[in-house]
């Protein structure tokens, strides 16, 4: 089944069961500074899962644009991609496990004709330490579901130790069958919601010998084995818990959050074992074949990296938030994607200029009927890709010069190796050879990190290498160290609600406070912030307001903010008890739970008269005179009763 048909079948299936179809949210999170991108359908709906009433009711369905940074290095195995569409349905305190599990299997088997005998289910084993029991309720429901299709579904505990055991339903621990935004229960902060889940796996079959040809061939295979034989195509999360100081407590309402990747569902519905062979990538792959003169089957990984990364970059830049390749926040991820694609393009021998823009044009054409914002922003996307391609090609040229120096060094090593050979033809100093190969791996990682040269290109340029596996091993070790450092650094990256801690971002953060104060002064205190996003290029604020703002009002807002900037007001942070901060009327951030002591930022004159008081973690400038000139670049509707303003500092 083609992807477009499958997408609408899913939405119509749940519409027929009382669900309202809602549009995809932006890839850039609103009011959530803890993450760079929306990576699941659940993220935009957290307030409603906590009990806030959704304007469309208690049953919702959508296809949500999603992006997962952690899968960048995984692309190339045929089953991972960074940008994907998450088909989702939600129950906000409405139906629960029985309806959800019955419906989703009916959709997969009856609607898109997946062979029921190839489907397997997993459930939560339960954990005493967190006080959440074994999910035997889901097992009982699943047994009835499979029975409907003539399958006697045996449930199995500890499959990770004992293998399949002719089972159909498998119990796993929280590491595999618990879902929250932060991951497993011990990683969840106080106040976060989550719950046990039931995943759906599709068996690609024994004939492909995925397990036998994997690094896991020495262990028993099971549905959660990383060999790739079983592929997850959907997950029903039963969100009914909130983490507290004492452990986990039940939410006032039981929620269902289902998510299933359109790409994987399309793959299995078409009887394929690789998402890049579906119609979602077909036109892109053909274009890469034309640009490179090579066939997809000759170098699958390079084709898949290019196809995935340029598609993802196109969607991020095409979201309408002005994200472009740079060295901070979301822009850094775009730069990483584009440059990684170009590196693999070099490996394929692509020499044509502006080729990334050509692929972006294909992505836009493929999705224009679903995500019109791509076509609307294609000029911006093309311009930014062209600039980044030119910049990176210059960087690569410098990297190749560095590689020439390494090539000379390695040539000397090889010559000395030949001199050290004994009459038998064996190397007499094999240990030294390995050490030098490992040193080469470190040098090649430096080229990769500094100039973007992939190790494959570097090794090809160097020619045959003694102990090449040692060089690659050393390179991968350095890469792993770098990734760990990046993860550690990013853990504290978003303190205070910013995408980064660049000086320009901090200035825009302070301007954001001034703008909210101006909105309330002009339109009344009933105007409340509903979301925000701030990076080094612009600020964005969503606020409650029920009509379009006129050109005269936009000019008035600009003048009001610029007047406060010109006055040179002090920006002061004070730690206050929550109750006191509420009494003085400090603005609270939408959807945030606060502790007993809070940070409040005041923007005030020398006499202590405050024009802005906001709950905020900072950071900010010390005085508004540091900001420059404030300018609104866009005003538009965000959702019903909510307007959005984007602004810059010049």
UniProtKB/TrEMBL annotation:
This protein's UniProt keywords: Aminoacyl-tRNA synthetase, ATP-binding, Ligase, Nucleotide-binding, Protein biosynthesis, RNA-binding, tRNA-binding
EC class: ligase
A Pfam family the protein falls into: tRNA-synt_2c
CDD domains in alphabetical order: AlaRS_core
Species assigned in the record: Candidatus Staskawiczbacteria bacterium RIFCSPLOWO2_01_FULL_38_12b
UniProt-listed Enzyme Commission number(s): 6.1.1.7
NCBIfam families the UniProt entry points to: PRK01584.1
Classification via SMART domains: tRNA_SAD
Name of the protein in question: alanine--tRNA ligase
Keyword DNA-binding: no
Transmembrane segments: none
Similarity field: Belongs to the class-II aminoacyl-tRNA synthetase family.
Entry GO terms, CC: cytosol
Molecular function (Gene Ontology), one example: aminoacyl-tRNA deacylase activity
Gene3D superfamilies: 3.30.54.20, Bira Bifunctional Protein, Domain 2, Threonyl-trna Synthetase, Chain A, domain 2
Xref: PROSITE patterns: AA_TRNA_LIGASE_II_ALA (PS50860)
